[in-house]
Amino acid sequence: MNASLANANPRVSQSQLQKGLSLVELMIASLISMIIILALTELYAGMSRTNRELVKTSSQIENARFAMQFVGEDVIHAGYLGGYIPDFDDFSESNAPVGVPSAVPDPCLAYTTPWSADYRNGLLAIPIQVHSGTPGSCGAVVANKVANTDVLVVRHAETCAAGAVNCAAQVAGRLYLQISNCLLELEAGSPYVFSTGPYTLRERDCNAAGGGTIAPIYRFVQHVYYVRDYAMTPGDGIPSLVRSEFDLDGGGVLAQQSPQVLVEGIERFRVELGLDIQRSVSTGVVQYGSDYTYNSGVNWEDPVERVTPTNRGDGVPDTYVHCGAGCTVGQLINTVSLRVHLLARANTESPGYSDSKDYNLGGLTIAAAALDDAYKRHVFSSTYRLHNVSGRRETPLAAP
């Protein structure tokens, strides 16, 4: 439509003749578009921040779960000895038990020469050790340990015999445990072989001529857990749960190996021991004391029924303690459960966040002032039963 048409038809307005947008309309449309774009941008940025925080939280939870899984699966096997029961835990013994260790073993003592009988007894009798500092000669193994964290030592025999289906074959020079089921050997005082060989103990079909089936051997497992102040590179600032394994080193010596990273982002690690305190029964009242000595055989409340021992534990934890500064032999051989506490930290900081929380890990408080950064954290705790220790102490209790 043109001007002549407008003149010919006066009912056609000037606005109907205009094509496109005016400058004012264009500016208004541009402003509205910018507002919408800014709103969408802010929405996207907010969703991205939320998503990043969710990823951090999810990773933090997964890291803690993996750490608990690694430790828990090891702990529940602690004390498994391929059928061997230490004398002090054998409730069929009527004489004072033998082989009670006199000292807490050094977990980093290398097997350069055969260990002493007392040291071997300690390894078999003490499936769990906890230290708040660096234990024994572990200075080269437990390096760069985070302050206010524990060192956990877990011991047991491998749960499958060497060479069995889905179990590694025997390796020359490794440390194995072989348990005798031969009455002749047991009466002669040879209940086990705990060395690098030879392994000649036999099963129940043994005879005086030396015949019979050779008993299976089980690899000895000793793991040392602690929190290191870096993950892969010293100084990277990522605290990590690491584990050292007892095995052959490059020179063929049996010793604790360099620790390997299990889980990143674990900042604190604390362990409490659940103690099965020996019981004394008088006037029908069960009393708990602190006598951990084993200077006599098992005494029974009823020598005929033999259901309630009066000088042994019952497999149930009576109290939980943190004795990392110096756990005694008596405490360690009467440990039947663990409480494990972890403080998991995100691997990256959250902009605008300041950690002002205090964290409690089994009696240990990590104050906010000691942290004061932008990392998000959470405490995870779990309790694990030492089935192989507590299970062999269980007897049906007499009615009160």
From TrEMBL:
Transmembrane regions listed in the UniProt entry: 20-45
Keyword line: Membrane, Transmembrane, Transmembrane helix
Pfam families in alphabetical order: PilW (PF16074)
InterPro entries to which the protein is assigned, alphabetical: N_methyl_site, PilW
BP GO terms, sorted: type IV pilus assembly
Transmembrane helix found in the keyword field: yes
Name the UniProt record assigns to this protein: Pilus assembly protein PilW
Taxonomic lineage: Bacteria, Pseudomonadati, Pseudomonadota, Gammaproteobacteria, Cellvibrionales
